[in-house]
Amino acid sequence: MPHNPCADLDTLDLTRVRAAAPERRPVLHYTAEKSWLNDPNGLIFHHGLYHLYYQNNPFGNVWGNMSWGHATSVDLVHWEEHPVAIPCEEGEAIFSGSAVFDARNTSGLGTEEQPPLVAVYTSAYAAPHPLAGRQAQSLAYSLDGGFTWTKFAGNPVLDRASSDFRDPKVIRCQDPAGDFWLLVAVEAQEKKVVLYRSENLRDWGFLSDFGPANAIGGVWECPDLFPLPDPERPGREKWVLIVNLNPGGVAGGSGGQYFVGDFDGTRFTPDAGSLLSDGPVDADGPVPPGAEDRGLANCLWLDHGRDCYATVSFDSAPGEGRVLLGWMSNWDYAGQTPTDPWRSGMTLARRATLVATPHGLRLAQHPVLPEPRDGRRLQEAAGIPLEPGAPFALAPFPEDAAQRIRLAVRPGAETLTLRLFDDGERAAVVRYSPEEGVLSLDRRRSGDVAFHEKFASVEHARLTLPDGVLRLDIVLDRGSVEIFSRDGLVVLTDLVFRGAGQVEASLEGGAGAVLESLEVDRLS
Ligand code: FRU
């Protein structure tokens, strides 16, 4: 019998030294100390801690031996890694899923005095398991606040005899007739979201399905469904359905789309303004001619970059809106990104709310960042005319921290160019074309791009300026660029493996361009 590494989890040495090329280890973005990760799983705020479980190979930095890794944070910014929470077994990989607090012990997996946290995950069965080839939904429970987990003896609890039924997201639904558990998962190949209902997390009844719809260029994975306040009808809610897909994302490879609509306890119905078939759904209305060629398809995208996938939300997070977290990589090249011994990290957490636009309700996302501290401001400027051919220098990227750049520019008629991580030869280049109404990020010559033929890329997002001012909120970490614009309506996330050593930033505009305000902060 082949050796099963899942049996060796107890012998893992979590204290191994940090990576070679430490300049690539992000400061603000979660990475596992010395192993592979992909999708965030089981996101939940419980007893003052944010729990981040994640798809993890505890034995290496490529995909395999899928288990749930674990980290916690008090602020969504600083994370502490813990031992593997739910390990794989011979014949059973632990794929993506979610976690809930079963406060009333409906599952009977805890007691009234000690109600359990319950994880609902996909068992991906392989030989020699009798269900080899199937994906079905299973439970594990924790009675110590999410640190140690026991697999339920009656697993799986939901089996459709399917090979592609996965990624359950469970939420508690309020209902006048009694609260219930709602499970949202996918039939990945069919591009369908499937909804089930339960009273006790063990017995599930089918409710409805949704899809295929809008982006269907790849398998549907990692769905999420949650209510948010309706900005147009105070006191009422609308529902957001997230569907990640691979490939077929807006920037190529894996990406995330969403729908806004209603959920009546049985069925999700998207708003007309959310659906491709009903006309333009981009936040900015119809896409300009030729824009489809650059990936500006008419769907609602969570992120226009290459590196934001498997985005799902935290259960029970305090504060306004819904807190989202994605995996900051792309299945096109995730296994080859040049880091060691860890590989892949998470995006920054993003707080999402619904906003009204002329084309319908849309998600606005803002990064969750460290609290301001004294002395972190690196640069401020206001009212600076930008001269063509004379780039305005921004504070250089601090080697030991992340950096936030907030700027407001009146671009004039010509293209505006912001060079980031500039070592004199290579840079990640943000451009804004007022003529086309398009924001782009070009990482083709941004540093190490040769490790995979699909990595060198240019990403585009439609971006019109209602008041003629381009506002960008950019977070640079050691290996990434995250851009938030149009008050969070447009988000773009890309990995960038810049060269080692000092890197600069600069802004250049054409005739008439004015830098109205600039704030550069150090984040750590
Ligand atoms: C998405 C995904 C999920 C699956 C997991 C396996 O990235 O393919 O559908 O549960 O990764 O690691």
Structure description:
The structure is a single chain. With 524 residues, this protein is mostly beta strands. 0% of the residues lie in helices and 44% in strands. The protein contains no helices and 32 strands. The strands form seven sheets. A six-stranded antiparallel beta sheet has the order 21-32-23-28-29-30, with no helix packed on it. A six-stranded antiparallel beta sheet has the order 22-31-24-25-26-27, with no helix packed on it. It has a four-stranded antiparallel beta sheet with strand order 1-2-3-4, with no helix packed on it. Strand 9 and strand 10 form a beta hairpin. It starts with 35 loop residues before the first strand and ends with a strand. The model is unreliable at 9-20 (pLDDT under 50). The structure holds beta-D-fructofuranose.
Topology readout:
Blueprint: E1 36-46, E2 49-57, E3 67-73, E4 80-86, E5 92-101, E6 117-125, E7 135-142, E8 150-151, E9 165-173, E10 180-187, E11 192-198, E12 205-210, E13 219-229, E14 237-246, E15 255-263, E16 268-270, E17 309-313, E18 322-327, E19 350-357, E20 360-367, E21 377-385, E22 392-394, E23 402-410, E24 416-422, E25 428-433, E26 438-442, E27 458-462, E28 470-477, E29 480-485, E30 490-495, E31 504-508, E32 514-523
Antiparallel strand pairs: 1-2, 2-3, 3-4, 5-6, 6-7, 7-8, 9-10, 10-11, 11-12, 13-14, 14-15, 15-16, 17-18, 18-19, 19-20, 21-32, 22-31, 23-28, 23-32, 24-25, 24-31, 25-26, 26-27, 28-29, 29-30
Bound molecules: beta-D-fructofuranose.
